[in-house]
Design a protein that fits this description.
This protein is α/β, with parallel strands linked by helices. It has 23 helices and 24 strands. Among the domains are: 59 residues, no CATH class; 215 residues, 3-Layer(aba) Sandwich (Rossmann fold), CATH 3.40.50.300; 94 residues, no CATH class. The strands form 4 sheets. It has an 8-stranded mixed sheet with strand order 6-7-8-3-9-10-12-11, with helices on both faces. An 8-stranded mixed sheet has the order 18-19-20-15-21-22-24-23, with helices on both faces. Strands 2-1-4-5 form a 4-stranded antiparallel sheet, covered by helices on one side.
């Protein structure tokens, strides 16, 4: 990615912004005096944990907060005060001068209207043009954001687009009226790494071409490092640090910023290096401490931190780097070296001002143990689950004239899961990862092949045998909230498997549920709450506790950290690793985040269009990849280093349809190394081309000899 051009005049300036939500006699202070600005041609990244006030700040600028929100301070767009405008005037600003890309395009697009109609509607809301002219402009915009064959696809509906294409439609809609400021609120959170790279490059190219200002809200620090000119770090409704992107990544001063950076899984870190967990969580917005709001979680807090709130002040070095920390002078002088832990009485001893959230308030601040277990001994662990030529085909849609072609979701997968080890499964959406996991657990009926648990074949089991199997193999779903009954208390959610399997009395089940909450590092009293009263990290811990209720041997985790903040993500990764070490669990972890897989997995399987294309040890797959698809995935991972913004072009296009996969190698249509007459005609077998390293590629040796992976992705420790 090219370096950003120097920023121009200030376009949007937010000063002393305060947002309070008033409901049921309570005042929830979401933003408490935030200051930030963005200039023409500049990208400002706003980062921080969920609940820190990032999105609320931007929604206040757009005038999209609910009626119970009380907003004060100043929000000026090109010198005009937005807070003084009435709703009619704000409508003329939204879309025309400030465009917005929301996190979930499917919930923002109308499912009953074509995409061109929705873009044209945005155009006609701000310009006096005919329907035909608006439609023609919408087709142009779809082409500009990279929708293939835009004239035809313009008449499609949102459900006919992939996730990445829907996000491109949202970008086209946001650009429809040529805004000067573009607000992107977590636009790549749920996307594959390849699609994420495409969207990041697209937004940055449009910014350069149009000279817009971009405000990028994200918890993905790798993307921020590749995209941002400046970074604003928010915590509990306040700005705690801001400055040039390179300064924050090279020399973060505030302990919260430094903690976020150390908690981030990285492909360029030595294998097995620890993730630092930030203990505790955000304070309750109703009862924040008088002093520094981060003090209860800070290793460097001393008496003044509890007594007075630090102001956001520039560092002596200048350069636009400002920090809100009483010890900023000491910390900036020893960047990269830890200060002595705690001066004066610890502030973490009391919990009056801190909710017990994603980790107990008294958790030690030391770095977590390595997430991935040490290298195994020479003896190969026993196989717990064996998949042999597993196929899961669904009946497709046909017509009265012809039969439907099957959807080949999983198409001949052979794979082993070993005792006490973690197998990471990666690949783009639609590659068959989740279907494979459901078939492994007997939740999908295989169309062919076998699934064997300890020598017992799934298809040959009786109903009683399947019930026994499900006691030994459990699943942690991607969205824990959707997998929990909202009418049940947390203790009942955790104890549900015990009731279904009639394990013990009601009192014994409650006691076991309380014990499991402690196992996943949640306080017992949390069991009396309901799922909606928990944070995202807490709900994921509850889902893990429920998965452990029947003492399983196998835990299948489907995207367990995809929607979590980097700090909570580190807590969950560390928790899973600890549970594996203590309980001897075998883990199958599915993720599109390759840095997470490299941190936690022992072996890695790369899946593409229903088949495994590469399989091997973590260090072999990430350090010495032999399949071009694996290389493409690794090249797409954003490097958390603002000094290294050049990277190979991301993989183009989407995977082909599993209804009609290409002949020969299924990846050949997207492969830069494909050889006509070979790759497009003959399917490559999955072969052990190096000891323990399997690849399905005709040209694996040639590719390995002719190129090397990005050094930033090849650290193997």
């Amino acid at each position: 990615m090219a370096a950003s051009a120097p920023a121009g005049a200030e376009l949007l300036a937010i000063r002393d912004l305060r947002v309070t939500f008033r409901a049921a006699g309570r005042d929830v202070h979401a933003v408490r005096g935030a200051d930030l600005s963005v200039a023409e041609g500049e990208t400002l990244a706003v980062v921080g944990e969920s609940g820190s006030g990032k999105s609320v700040t931007m929604m206040a600028a757009l005038g999209l907060l609910p009626e119970n929100a009380e907003v004060s301070g100043s929000i000026r767009l090109r010198g005009r005060e937005l807070l003084a405008m009435d709703e009619r005037a704000l409508r003329s600003v939204r879309g025309a001068e400030i465009g917005v890309i929301f996190q979930d395009p499917m919930s923002s697009l109308n499912p009953v209207h074509t995409v061109s109609r929705q873009i044209a509607e945005a155009i006609r809301a701000h310009a006096d043009v005919s329907r035909g002219a608006a439609h023609a402009r919408s087709v142009e915009l779809l082409g500009e954001v990279g929708i293939p064959d835009p004239r035809t696809r313009a008449d499609d509906y949102p459900h006919q687009f992939s996730g990445g294409m829907r996000q491109r439609v949202m970008i086209a809609m946001a650009l429809a009226c040529g805004p000067r400021v573009l607000v992107a609120d977590e636009p790549t959170t749920a996307l594959d790494v390849t699609v994420q790279a495409q969207i990041v490059d697209l937004v940055d190219r449009i910014r350069r071409d149009r000279g817009m200002a971009v405000i990028w809200i994200s918890h993905d620090l790798g993307v921020v490092a590749q995209l941002a000119d400046r970074v604003t770090v928010m915590y509990a409704g306040r700005v705690v640090e801001q400055g040039p992107c390179a300064d924050l990544f090279d020399a973060a001063v505030h302990p919260y910023t430094a903690g976020l950076l150390r908690a981030m899984p990285r492909l360029d870190a030595p294998a097995g290096s620890p993730l630092e967990v930030i203990p505790g969580s955000l304070p309750d917005p109703e009862t924040q401490p008088e002093g520094c709001v981060f003090a209860p979680r800070c290793d460097h807090a001393h008496d003044p931190c509890a007594a007075a709130r630090p102001a956001l002040l520039p560092l002596a070095a200048g350069g636009g780097h400002a920090v809100a920390c009483h010890r900023s002078g000491e910390l900036s002088a020893v960047v990269g070296r830890p200060l002595p832990a705690r001066v004066g009485p610890t502030l973490r001893a009391g919990t009056d001002n801190v909710r017990s959230h994603d980790a107990p308030a008294a958790a030690p601040p030391a770095a977590a143990p390595p997430a991935a277990a040490p290298a195994p001994a020479a003896a190969t662990p026993p196989v717990v689950v064996a998949l042999e030529e597993l196929r899961v085909h669904y009946r497709g849609r046909g017509s009265w004239r012809r039969a439907a072609a099957p959807v080949r979701a999983v198409d001949g997968v052979t794979l082993d899961l070993e005792h006490g080890r973690t197998l990471g499964l990666v690949g783009e959406s639609g590659s068959g990862k989740s279907t494979l996991a459901r078939a492994l657990l007997g939740l999908e009926q295989p169309s062919g092949g076998t699934v064997a648990f300890g020598g017992r074949v799934l298809d040959s089991m009786s109903a009683a045998g399947l019930r026994d199997l499900r006691r030994t193999a459990q699943m942690v779903f991607q969205d824990p909230a959707a997998s929990m009954n909202p009418a049940l208390r947390v203790e009942d959610v955790v104890g549900e498997p015990l009731r279904i399997n009639r394990r013990g009395s009601a009192a014994e089940q409650r006691a076991r549920a309380a014990e499991l909450l402690e196992v996943v590092e949640l306080p017992r009293e949390l069991g009396r709450r309901y799922p909606h009263q928990l944070s995202g990290g807490q709900r994921q811990r509850v889902a893990i506790a429920r998965g452990l209720a029947l003492d399983p041997q196998v835990l299948v985790c489907d995207e367990p950290v995809s929607a979590l903040d980097v700090s909570v993500q580190a807590q969950i990764i560390t928790l899973l690793s600890r549970l594996q070490a203590e309980l001897g669990l075998s883990l199958l972890v599915i993720s599109h985040d390759l840095a997470v897989i490299r941190t936690i997995a022992h072996r890695v399987a790369v899946m593409y269009l229903g088949r495994i294309v590469e399989l091997g040890g973590r260090d072999d797959v990430f350090g010495r990849p032999r399949h071009p698809y694996t290389r493409g995935l690794l090249d797409a991972v954003p490097v958390p280093d603002p000094h290294r913004r050049s990277r190979p072009a991301p993989l183009a296009g989407d995977p082909p349809s599993p209804v009609a996969p290409p002949p020969g190698c299924r990846f050949h249509e997207r492969c830069a190394f494909a050889r006509p007459g070979l790759c497009d005609t003959t399917p490559p077998p999955l072969e052990e081309q190096r000891p323990g390293h399997w690849t399905a590629c005709h040209l694996a040796d040639e590719i390995a000899a002719s190129s090397a992976p990005d050094p930033a992705h090849a650290a193997t420790g």
